[in-house]
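RESIDUES AND SHAPES:
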Amino acid sequence: MLRDLFVIPLPWLEQNASGGGLPIRGYGFMLLVGFVAGVTLAARQARRMGVNPDLIYSFAFWIFVAGILGARAFFVIQYREQFWRENMLAMIGAVLNLTEGGLVVYGAFLGVMLAGTIYLVVHKLPVLAFADLIAPSLALGLAFGRVGCLLNGCCFGGLCDTPWLGVQFPPTSPVYERQLELGQLHGFRLQDHPETGQPQVVAVYPDTPAQAAGMRVGMIVSAINGQSTPTTAHARQVLRTGSPTLVVQTDQSSLTVFAPSLPGRSLPVHATQIYSAVNAALLFFLLWTYYPLRRRDGELFAILLLLYPITRLILEAVRVDEAGKMGTNLTIAQWISLMLIAGAIALWVYVLRQPAGSALPMRQDSTSSMQDRPTKALDEQGGN
């Protein structure tokens, strides 16, 4: 985790939290790198296909703005309780503060699809042909973005027992804070009782202060350090204070969970950010390799629309930063993945019913697999 890559010294900002200067966040920096890499790649591919690269730059600007807006809007709606302020200006400021992350991939994806489609339709450009053109760039940008998630400490996985797979995060990370407020750093884990909603011990880890104190699975916690905990939310608030020693009142007995000090790093968790980055990189190489082999416009985007949600379904099973929705264990990302898979199948049916060929003009040096295809003239805005 490296939230601040470096700080640009600025004399008039000497009193800020970064010790003087403008901090360059690792998360934002990787998003920028991913965007630049994706646009450069798409412009190169456009030039090979006989499309004016300036069209890609203009197109990229609008989908970048729409992607950021969509990603932030999705996050704000999903975690709206975090943004509630009594003062409207303070609430707006919280919504606009992107320095700590707070962007959702699927929100960005939906924003890009909507804005991109509108842009292409307004400029009378072939939607599916351009979707294929930018599909590898989307996967490449996502790979860099997930590295940014690692630097930011968000989008983390559950506890990992495999030493070479697990990663640990510092006390300022979301992982550490979550483990602290769930009791995991003391050796137990709380969860809502399925019927009463009271905090219930659902796990006690071996060789920990909680086990030494005699804590057992199934205990109902009614108070911690003298503070009543009628719900798990109340218990998490008390645990968040970071007291090494806990006096826990349960329905069975009173326990003293003694720890000389809290650990300096979180318990090892699955590096789902790295898993996701590798997944996106593999998708990029697949799409980039398949591009000259496609027979119809839309095939490449349909592959992306199908494979990414499938892999995301699997990755979400390892992540623990989101709760299940709609009365199930499926996260909101998994629900959207299922909808996108259905959309991908529908797109495949549509694409396969179209005649072979591409709407993009091709130069003489195009790959042999595409030379013999019929082509349609682009609107003069898109050609060289």
